[in-house]
Amino acid sequence: MSSPVIIVTGASRGIGLATVRSALSLGCRVVGAGRSKITSLDAWKDLLQKYPTEASYIEGDLCERSVAQEIVKQTVSKYGKIDGVVLNAGVVEPFAKVKNTDIEEAKRCFDINFFSVWTLIQETLPEMRKSHGKYIIVSSGAAAHAIDAWSAYCSSKAAVNMLGFCLTNEEKDVICVSIRPGVVDTDMQKTIREQGSVAMDGPVHAMFTGLYESGKLVKAEDAGYQLAKLVMECPADLNGQFLDYMDEKLAAFRK
Questions:
Q1: MF terms per GO, please (predicted)?
Q2: 3-state class of 84 per DSSP?
Q3: Is the pTM of the predicted complex or chain greater than 0.90?
Q4: Integer CA distances (angstroms), 9 to 84, 87, 113, 173, 175, in order
Q5: In CATH, what number is assigned to the domain containing residue 166?
Q6: Residues with catalytic roles
Q7: What is the reported pLDDT for 211?
Q8: Structural domains of the chain, count
Q9: What angle is formed at CA 18 by the lines to CA 13 and CA 21, rounded to 5 degrees?
Q10: Radius of gyration from C-alpha coordinates of the chain
């Protein structure tokens, strides 16, 4: 059997980059996608040197359908198939209360966190049906619990969870699972600590700062390993579920 071929979005840093690294080390062939230029990504330069035939990086904004189409085209052209997609690209901004959120900024949040996911699912489905592939949606606890001044992010993550549930209901030849990776030590958390206090209530912002200062954030490499294992091996009995990183059902997928 040939090694799995997976696509990872938001692959330039954080959870996405960690997922790429784990997937490559586990024997996958990986196409990473991100908005950052490869010239600015030293980690990716190293990966492409270490895995010259197994790793590929595609630069582009997944809010554009043409980018999603190009990712599929290049992946199938180079590797012949698509076995899994880790839908990780996302932003937490804008930080604002419901009453004064800039709707254009909220739409941009939805474009990245929700509509780009929908678009890539549409474009990959023909290949994913063939391979009985696995979609892993990187969701958030904010999909189920409102967080002060995160109305756009919370709403977009709740929406993407429901998109996954609908996909499971409609498409019987693929698996789709949404994962809450926990509070992970990434640039997104740094953004929350450095910029969130402008709109977030003090105690809520202090909770995130405290998790960082006490060393209680999940390591990106641990979250990435779990996502890589799931996109390779997720069993059918997890299909259609929204699961926490520490859920007992995922014990076999943690380091």
A1: oxidoreductase activity, acting on NAD(P)H, oxygen as acceptor
A2: strand
A3: yes
A4: 11, 6, 11, 22, 18
A5: 3.40.50.720
A6: 139, 153, 157
A7: 83
A8: 1
A9: 115
A10: 17
